[in-house]
Each structure stands twice: as C-alpha cells, then as structure tokens.
Amino acid sequence: MTKNSLTQFLQKLMILIPAYNEQEVLPESLPILQKIIQQLIDRRLIASDSGLMIVSDGSTDQTWSLIEQAHEADARVMGVKFSRNFGHQNALIAGLTVMSKQQLADFVISIDADLQDDPQAIFQMVEQYQAGSEVVFGVRNNRDSDSWFKRVSAEAFYSLLGRLGVHLVPEHADFRLLGPKAITAFLQYQEENMFIRGIIPLLGFNSSRVYYARHKRLAGKSKYPLFKMLSFAWDGVTSFSIAPLRLVLSLGVGFALFGFVMLIYTLVAKLRGVTAAGWSSLMISIWIVGGCQMMAIGLTGEYIGKIFSEVKHRPRYTIEKKLLK
Ligand code: UDP
Ligand code: MG
Predict the structure, then answer these.
(1) pTM for this structure?
(2) Residues spanned by the domain of 279
(3) What is the pLDDT of residue 93?
(4) Are the C-beta atoms of residues 324 and 102 closer than 8 Å to each other?
(5) CB environment 41-57: b (16+ within 10 A), e (fewer)
(6) Residue 162 belongs to a domain
(7) Is 298 helix (H, G, I), strand (E, B) or coil?
(8) Which of the two ends of the chain, N or C, has the fewest CB atoms closer than 10 A to its terminal CB?
(9) What total of structural domains would you count in the chain?
(10) What's the CATH number where 10 sits?
C-alpha cells in the first residue's frame, strides 16, 4: 500500500473544549492542543483535516474573540458560541452534535480548557482507540492539585453515588475519547438534565482507561463554585437513581411502625392512669414527624420537577454563531 492510499484511511480527530470565561487560559492551552494535533498528523496517526472545537458557553469575557482570532490564524480551530450560559454538559453535547451533523470528526476527545487533565494522555487515548476501544476514559491517579475541600467533597460524592446504585468510572470526569459508534449512541440520549459521565458507561462498547496526573488550573479560577458543584452533584443523584425516594418511603414505614408502638404505649398508659405528663414527647414527635413529612414532599417534588422539565422538551442550548471550516 502506498503512503497516499494509507492517508485515505486515517481517521479525523476533533478535540472538544468547553469554555466559560476562559480568557486567561485559552492563550496557553490552545497552542498546546494545536501542537498535539500537529504531532499526531505528522506521525500519520490521524487525518490531516483533524482539528479542535471550542464551545464558548455564554462567556462574557474575551473568550469568543480569542476563538475568532485563533480560527483566523488556523482554520483547524473551530468555534461554537452559545447565546448564553447553558452549562458545561450542554457545551459538550452541542460540540458532539455539530461535529456529527457536519461530519467534522470520526472520533472526539473532550478536555477542559484549563488543561488540568494532562493533554499528553491524548497520545495514549488515540493508541487505545486504534487498538479497538470505542470509549477511552481519562482517569486521574491523584488529586494533589485540588483543594482539600474539593478532594473530600468529590470523594464523598462518588461514594454516595455508588451506594445509590449509580456506577461511574471513579476519578473520571469529562476527559474522554468517543469513537463514532459511541457518539451516535450517546446522541440518542435526549434527556434534558444530562450527567454525561453517568451515561457513557451505559452505552456499552469496548472501553479502556488511560491514567494521568491531574495538574493545577493553568490560570484563572474554577468555573464550578460551591453552589454550581452541589447542583451538578444533585443532578447526578436525581437523574440516575430513585434511591432517595425509596429512602423516604422506608423512613415513612419506619415512622408508621413506631407510631403504632406509641399507640399501644399510650393506650396502656391511659389505662394505667398516668397520662398527664406527655407534653415533651408530643412536641418532639410533632417536630420530627412534621420535618420528615416536609422532607418527603420536597424530595418527591424534586423528581416531579425533573419530569416537568423533561416533558417540556426544551432545547438544551441555543447556538448563536459557528466558526467551522
Ligand atoms: N465550563 C463551561 N460552562 C460552565 C462551567 C464550566 O463550559 O458553566 C467549562 C470550563 O470552561 C472548563 C470546564 O467546563 O473548561 C471545567 O470547568 P472548571 O475547570 O472550572 O471546573 P473544575 O475543574 O474546577 O471542576
Ligand atoms: Mg478545571
């Protein structure tokens, strides 16, 4: 086979980067990723029309104009601009959707703009893909660069999810490679409250893992402040598990049984004529049971709220502009 006919079979890789107010980081991370693409092309591992796509998730800083400049200078850099902030997960979905509709890529690697995930692991990911993995998970083997709080809260979150029956790949976030079959399968998941890292293991296919050390953010601040992180975690729980509802149900059963015991106790006490004092136990039960009822209603409401937002079938994002080839 000649070199030319070989190049025909090389597959197109796109690196997908969600970016929300990343002006401090992009000037550093883009050249690194562009270089990796070039190296892969030079080694004849991927097609020469491979490239990068950055999805600006409603950034209000210079992020979009940096993308425009990068696109001017190198047509391999493509961009999608959201009309407002729709969230990291939706930015990833939009990128995959555009790439698949416009046939921009055979396989895609997603990576955060701050390059906390080691971009050098991309080489191994491509290798694993070519060896037959349809999905390659990037897994970090340490969290030394994260703050104590982030580390502890993330660990608690993963162990809680595991106990609730949501099985994630531990220490894997959104640094992953998806092959063409996995992308097609993934895009069939149309739910609005997407927790992508929970969906990917559900797709099936041959998968493998690539390990790397997680670095500190190149620059700028985390775009996941505490509140956003908690709401992301809550989405993770309620999109995949009805265990909290079951817990409430069993709590209810427990309380009802306890109430029954109390009923007998009260009757016996009444018959024995010692019923005057009882104010404190009454007060306590009213508060505890009342609290539990409210909790149960609130929790049920959470799920109904999810159903409400799913049945509306609103679009998950709105694209304002695209810079493609
Ligand atoms: N991000 C996004 N939209 C958001 C929040 C974050 O597109 O609403 C992007 C962000 O630009 C980055 C990635 O998601 O590329 C991960 O965010 P970040 O690094 O701030 O999260 P952390 O690593 O602190 O969990
Ligand atoms: Mg980060």
Answers:
(1) 0.80
(2) 243-312
(3) 97
(4) yes
(5) beeebbbeebbbbbbbb
(6) no
(7) helix
(8) N
(9) 2
(10) 3.90.550.10
- 56 pocket-lining for ligand 1 (C-beta < 6 Å): no
* HSE of 309, CA atoms in CB hemisphere, 13 A: 14
Tell whether 236 is covered by a domain.
Answer: no
118-134 residues labelled b (16+ CB within 10 A) or e (exposed): bbebbebbbebbeeebb
Answer yes or no: do 11 and 76 share one domain: yes
On whether the CB atoms of residues 112 and 219 are closer than 8 A, the answer is no
Ligand nearest to the CA of 225: 1
Q: What distance in angstroms lies between residue 178's CA and the mean position of ligand 1's atoms?
A: 20
Whether residue 235 lies inside any domain: the answer is no
Neighbours of 302 (CB within 10 A): 14
Summarize pLDDT for 263-309 with one digit per residue, the tens: 888 888 878 876 666 766 776 777 778 778 877 888 888 888 888 87
Q: Which residue, judged by its Cα, is nearest atom 1 of ligand 1?
A: 88
* Ligand 1 atom 23, closest CA: 222
Identify whether residues 264 and 125 lie together within a single domain: no
Give buried/exposed letters for 72-99 (b at 16+ CB in 10 A, else e): eebebbbbbbbeebbbbbbbbbbbbbbb
Other Cβ atoms within 10 Å of 212 Cβ, number? 19
For 26, the 3-state DSSP assignment is helix
Q: Which residues of the chain are under the pLDDT cut of 50? A: 1-5
Q: How many whole angstroms from 302 Cα to the centroid of ligand 1? A: 25
Atom of ligand 1 nearest to the CA of 112: 15
Q: Which atom of ligand 1 is nearest to the CA of 86?
A: 8
Give 105's contacts (C-beta < 8 A, 6+ positions apart). Answer: 12, 13, 14, 50, 99
Whole-number Å distance, alpha carbon 57 to ligand 1 midpoint, is 9
Ligand 1 site, residue 18, Cβ cutoff 6 A = yes
And the tokens for 15? 């690196």
